[in-house]
Design goal:
Serine Threonine Protein Phosphatase 5, Tetratricopeptide repeat; disordered C terminus; 2 domains; mainly alpha
Length: about 190
């Protein structure tokens, strides 16, 4: 369950569903339909339940990534500022590199996720930009940026309209303080 709960991992869903199904069948076979099953089958079901539980626990303990840090350090702020400056200077490669590095150490940074999605849209990687925006909109950190996410999705839906207008109008206006929403945007 930790894989599913904290990371939304599909393998975690499979393990959680397998455990739930095997546990339910074992309970039903033991107490409800006891006369339908032999003792060996009931013991096998309980052994399978224990096995799935052990596999899930071992996989969670062995390969579970470290806890996500929600504390923004000065180093993270420095990386974001460097990425933002590279974005504004239209150095797309440097900006993307900095943003991806920041998102490795701080994957819940909504402002960095939004800037990365905006950058991906600007360089024409619309599918990746849409995926990043949809992921951000489903996360808790996306609540602060709901209107900006909506604007970016509209721009993705009408790329010819955005390119026909002023190209500078499509630059995301970011505040100078890290993770502080621009004026006029309130946390939902």
């Amino acid at each position: 369950m930790p894989w599913l709960w904290l990371r939304g991992n599909v393998a975690g869903l499979v393990i959680a569903l397998a455990f739930g199904v095997v546990l339910d069948v074992a309970i039903l076979a033991t107490w409800i339909w006891a006369d339908l099953f032999d003792l060996e089958i009931i013991l096998g079901l309980w052994a399978a339940t224990a096995g799935v539980w052990i596999v899930g626990t071992v996989s969670a303990l062995a390969a579970f990534p470290p806890l996500i840090s929600t504390i923004h350090t000065a180093a993270n702020d420095g990386i974001f500022i460097a990425a933002r400056d590279a974005y504004l200077a239209r150095d797309w490669l440097l900006a993307e590199t900095k943003l991806r590095a920041l998102l490795i150490v701080s994957p819940t940074d909504g402002e960095a996720q939004l800037l990365l999605a905006t950058l991906l849209r600007r360089v024409g990687r619309n599918r990746e930009a849409r995926e990043a925006l949809e992921k951000l909109s489903r996360s808790d950190s996306g609540a602060t940026w709901k209107s900006a996410i909506g604007r970016e999705l509209v721009r993705l839906d009408a790329p010819e309209a955005a390119s026909a207008g002023d190209p500078e109008a499509t630059i995301l206006q970011l505040s100078t303080a890290h993770n502080v929403p621009p004026a006029g945007e309130a946390a939902a």
